[in-house]
Every structure is written in C-alpha cells, then in structure tokens.
Amino acid sequence: MATISPASDFAPTAAAPRAAATAARTRDLRLDFFRGIAMFIILVAHIPFNPWAGWIPARFGFSDATEIFVFCSGMASAIAFGGAFLKRGWWMGTARIAFRVWQVYWAHIGLFFFTAMCMAALDLSGLFEKSYVDGLNLQHFFGDPMPQIVGLFTLTYVPNYFDILPMYLVVLAMMPLMMGLRQVGFWAMALASVLIWAVAQTGALALPAEPWSERQWFFNPFGWQLLFFTGFAFMRGWIPAPPVHKALIWAAALFVVLSAPFGSWKVFLWVDAWNPTVSEPIRETWKVTGELRDKTDFALLRYVHFLSLAYLGWVVAGDKGARLLPQGTGGLARLWQIVLNVILKVGQQSLAVFVFSMAAARLLGVLLDLGGRDPATVLAVNLFGFALIAAVAYGAAWFKSHPWKSRT
C-alpha cells in the first residue's frame, strides 16, 4: 500500500498526491445515503416502547445503526477536516478539530438540558401517572443537581441516553494524534488505533459515567475509534476499496445470515420457540461470545459484522451509488427520487438531525403514551417523526447556505 510522505501530507506549501486529494474532496452519494438511513433508524430506536424498534437492524445481528453513524462520521470527517491538515498543516488542522469538538460539546450540553426540561415539564403538568424524569433515569440529577451539573460539564456524569455525543467528541479529539502519527506512516496510525482498541477490550480504558455507581460510559471512545478511523482511512484513500468479488460477497452474506441467531435476542427467541433443541447450542454460544459482541468497547464480532454489512451495501449501491439513483422516468422512479433526496439531505445534516431526533424521540414517546400503540397510531407517530427530522435537515441546510447574504 502506498504511503504519503510527511511533507506531502502536512506542509501547507506541498502538493498532496492526486488520488488521496481526490478521494478526500469527492463526496460519495453512498456516504450521505447510509448516514441518512442511520438517522431514521436511530429515531425509531429511541422512541420509548416503539413497536417498530423490534425490526431495526440491531435485532438481527451484532452491529446496528450506531456503527453506521460512527463509520460514516469518520468518512465525513476525512472530507470536512482532513483537508485542513493537508492544506494548512498540523496546527491549523488541530485548531479545526478543536472548533468542531467545541460545537459537539455544546450540542451535548444543550441536548441534555432541553430534554431534561421537557421531562420535568411533563412531570410538573400532573397529567401523567408515571414519571418521565424517572423513565430517563434523571432522578439523581434533579435530586442533587449541583454535583451532577459539574459532572455533566466535565463529562464525568454521562447519563444513559446522552452517551453518543461524548463518545464522538473524544474520538474527534484523537484525530490530531492520529494525523501526527500519519506523518510517520499509515502503518503507525493504523497500529496505534488497533492497539488502543485492543487495550480498551480489557476494560483498562473505561470512563466513569456517574459518581454513585460503577457504571461506565456506554460507548467507550477508545474502542469505537477503530471504526471511526477505518472510515476515515477509506475516505482519504489510505485503504484501497475492496474488490467486487463473488467469494467476498458470499463470505460477507454468509457471516451476516449465520451470525443472526447468535447476535440478536430477537432471532434467538424465534429459534427457541421454533425448536428448543436447536436453540440450546445457540444459548451456550450466546454466553461464550458475550465479550466478543460487547457494544460498550466495540468488540470484534461487531467490527466484522459491520464490515460485512458495509461491504454488501457498497456492492449493492454500485459505483459512487449509481444503483441508488432512480431507474427510468415513471411514477415510481419520480417517487424514489423524492425519497432519495430526503434521505440524502438528512445524511448531509446528520449532527443537527441527530441532536433534534434524540430530544424529539422522547416527546414522540409521549404521543404514543397518549394515543396508544395500535398499528395505526404507531405508523402515524413514526412517520410524523420522519417528517420532523426531514424538516430539520432542510432547515439546517437553508441556514448554512447563508440566504441573508447578498448574491451578486
């Protein structure tokens, strides 16, 4: 595999290799498509007691939409931030990352306080028998807010449900280190990422999530960084695109299909109901492979499962996502073009959409509490949620276009 010299990668006055620069500048249709799909899945997964959540990809394998989000974020970061290192040098690239970490940090803080306020308002309304504050496990925060506020701002208090953005900002903060190692060679960066991931599997790099228990961050950034930088390296062109080969396609498909009973409690229950005798070895395998499919530290089986799914998705989508585009000019083709445009827009504005959807999901759960969870109500609430995040994506894109500036 070809490597890039330190001067070409970080000296502002030097020209980068044409292939790497092109790879980093070009936004692949597949990136926005799959990241957009992940945003819709994440919304479905976070609506409390949402029947649709029983059918998301997480119920049929080791990996889920979180992997899509992190991998695609690594790819997007290669486009958005990698160029700063390439064009302006390591220090300016680090400054660019620091600014993004600052943005994500305040997005996390704002998301927490807005959601906590909504849950408190619902409880104070007296309209509900249950406590929404307790349902989100925020009773400790409201019972003794002063130390929890300090913990919230120092990231030593990371409540359940608010744990993805802290992981993401820590992984982003690791980018200057990785880009510095890239000056030595890609092998140094790759080796460091793998070693950090391996140490994280031992539990030595666990981060405390709350002062009153031994609970750790649900997403350990030192484990998940491996997936982020895998996506980053693919987009920078440091890892070559895998070939489209029948043997690889079959291997990936077989791993995804055959691992389903071992990677999901839902499929396991189906097998158990179908044939308890068959389910017994699956039950034992489930116990033995617990650490290998662990989500907190991003265990090996999750990595292999996601790479298999990603490869299949990459093959199905075609070169630069050509097969995602509508075929023909009929009514279905036009309808698909509209749907595709919405998915792409949601993928392009993923941070704004994610922050909004995490807050909206709790309120959509309230609508289900009020209206019931019959199929019609569930359909209406989920589609309403989809419409909301689509509106946020288009709104965010409009604001980013700076429409108030004169156009001459």
UniProtKB/TrEMBL annotation:
It comes from the Bacteria. The keyword Chloroplast does not apply. Keywords: Membrane, Transmembrane, Transmembrane helix. The chain crosses the membrane at residues 33-56, 68-86, 106-128, 148-172, 184-205, 217-235, 247-271, 300-317, 338-364, 376-399. InterPro entries: UCP028704_OpgC (IPR014550). PANTHER family: BLL4819 PROTEIN. This is OpgC domain-containing protein.
